[in-house]
């Protein structure tokens, strides 16, 4: 962990664990650059972006299934996957969008 000791601050010496709060610098622009450069160099992030470009509905289905998997038993999840794959494309897209709205909650 990255610890920063601030000396001479208005409340005296303050020990803050900056990394646990996601802050690397007191300058928000630097934090933004660090966060985005770390994200954009991630192989998983880049491959997810590429998958979403080439097949957005499949990527949406992958994200929905990832959220639903812990809520279902193995048999019920297999049935759900079969149910989704047998849908016509337009119905599948509508179902996935409705499920995404339910999983993300109101707002």
What does the secondary structure layout of this molecule look like, with pairings?
Layout: E1 3-9, E2 12-17, H1 28-40, H2 43-54, H3 56-68, H4 74-85, H5 89-104
Antiparallel strand pairs: 1-2
Please tell me about this protein's structure:
This protein is α+β, with helices and mostly antiparallel strands and 107 residues long. It has 2 domains: 3-40, no CATH class; 43-104, no CATH class. It has 5 helices and 2 strands. Helix 2 (43-54) crosses helix 3 (56-68) and helix 3 (56-68) crosses helix 5 (89-104). The longest helix has 16 residues, at 89-104.
List keywords for this structure.
107 residues, alpha+beta, 2 domains, two-stranded antiparallel sheet, 5 helices, 2 strands, disordered N terminus
In short:
The protein is of the alpha+beta class.
Assembly level: single chain
Order of strands across the widest beta sheet? Answer: 1-2
Total DSSP E strands: 2
Helical percent range? 55-70%
Structural class: alpha+beta
What is the CA–CA distance across the termini? 35 Å
Q: Provide the low-confidence segments as ranges.
A: 1-18
Mean pLDDT across every amino acid position: 81
Principal-axes shape call: elongated
Number of domains: 2
- Compressed to H and E, one letter per element, the order equals EEHHHHH
Query: How would a crystallographer describe the biggest sheet?
Result: 2 strands, antiparallel
The proportion of residues in beta strands is 5-15%
What gyration radius follows from the Cα positions, in whole Å?
Answer: 21 Å
Number of helices: 5
């Amino acid at each position: 962990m990255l610890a920063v000791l601030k000396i001479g601050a208005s409340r005296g010496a303050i020990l803050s664990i900056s990394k646990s709060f996601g802050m690397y610098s007191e300058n928000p622009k630097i934090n933004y650059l660090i966060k985005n450069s770390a994200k954009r160099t991630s192989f998983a992030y880049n491959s997810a972006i590429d998958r979403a470009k080439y097949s957005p509905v499949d990527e949406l289905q992958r994200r929905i299934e990832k959220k639903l998997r812990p809520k279902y038993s193995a048999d019920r999840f297999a049935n759900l996957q079969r149910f989704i794959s047998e849908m016509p494309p337009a119905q599948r897209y509508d179902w996935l969008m409705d499920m995404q709205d339910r999983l993300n909650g109101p707002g």
